[in-house]
What does this fold into?
Amino acid sequence: MARILIIDDDPQVCGTIESLSTRMAHKPSKALTLDEGLRRVRQGGIDVVFLDVRLPDGNGLDILPEIVSLPEAPEVIILTGRGDPDGAELAIQQGVWDYLLKPSSVREITLTLGRALKYRDQKLAKSALENLELSGVIGESPTFKSTLRQLAEAARADSNVLVTGETGTGKELFARTIHRNSGRKGGSFVVVDCASLTESLVESTLFGHKKGAFTGAHSDRTGLVKLADGGTLFLDEVGEMPLSIQKSFLRVLQERTFRPVGGTSELQSDFRLLSATNQDLEKLVEQGEFRSDLLFRLKTMQIHLPPLRMRPEDIRILAQWQTERVCRRYGVAEKGFGSDFLPTLESYEWPGNVRELLNIMEQTVVGAGEEKTLYSMHLPRELRIKVARAQIHKMTGSDSSDDAQPGRKLGQDIFEEIFEQQLPALRDFKSMAEKAYLEELIRQCEGDVPKTLSVSGLSRSHFYALLKKYGLSL
It folds into this structure.
């Protein structure tokens, strides 16, 4: 909802724009003189000003310089009569959004107002993004910047927000960042771990209890909902909230009131709700495991965090950030990356997302000790094996085959030879993989040339050329 101010002494013009703004779900107000209008603008909170040129106490263009110089200045739409010498060109030169010739049609006013508000939203979102406090929120990829714009919008609002994404994508970090950049940053950020709520203690945990309310209640306890009064309540893994408590919590969301266990009176809590989940809540609703009316309340706004594999451009900056951070923490020498280090990281799928990358980097930096350059060989062996198998699979179409020796994998000998040393150049690795493939092909086909050609798809001449290249025989 935008706030619209009409500075015009014509009742018909004011009435038309007020009616139109109300129908567009905005909040209009009017001022009949320049002095009154300027006073209202100085108070702030105005998004768009419709400003008449000819007013009883002066020319509207005279106050334009002050309006446009105000902090978070509103967009200005000039209202001018046909043939007015103080018309469009002069107004636009002074920084107004647009101008309208009186009388204007409802369609013209609607289009101009809609465009001005869209422009303002984009401008404020960009400004908010530039001014965000983003400690620990790392990423420069286009995909990630899109989520940052949503974060900025969420920080400016006070609506409920649902943050979704796979495990390890940083949902709680995003929620904390929204809180830290919001109007409630002076209040508490209270975390509710829905996965750890037990049926017997969930109401006491959320709403608190009075002394003697149940066995073990030796004193009054303030619930998490009340602790979030004036701040933010964060429901982590909200998909795990017991179905039995969802109805009670829905009422708390609607009324912002609750009753402690054993209490006789209602308490109030003015909190903002942020939630996070790695589950498909829509699917849980279909399965009858989550209330649809609660879901509707949770996701007034929704931000989906992309998995790390969908933002590979951010792997480098995340790895560098964590390396510097760990070096400072442990007081070890600063470290750079060898030529094979980042390509290995970028070839991994990162099922654990950012959390896994940060853990791997800490493990790698600590394990490298005083060495100043990190190479692929410093990474955990399991990660390097998965990357190598993925590369072989890409080259050969398969990373395993039936074998006379149970559990033996195609290329296993390569892995065992190279993973305790620095990785070879990719060209050399491909040759090693190609040789291993041929050896396995010959063994499985028992030297039967027609069968080897059929399985491999090689021509006879190419096959014999490869045998000669690697010194192999049938």
User: Anything to note?
Assistant: The chain has four domains: 3-126, 142-304, 308-373, 380-474. The first strand starts at residue 3 and ends at 7.
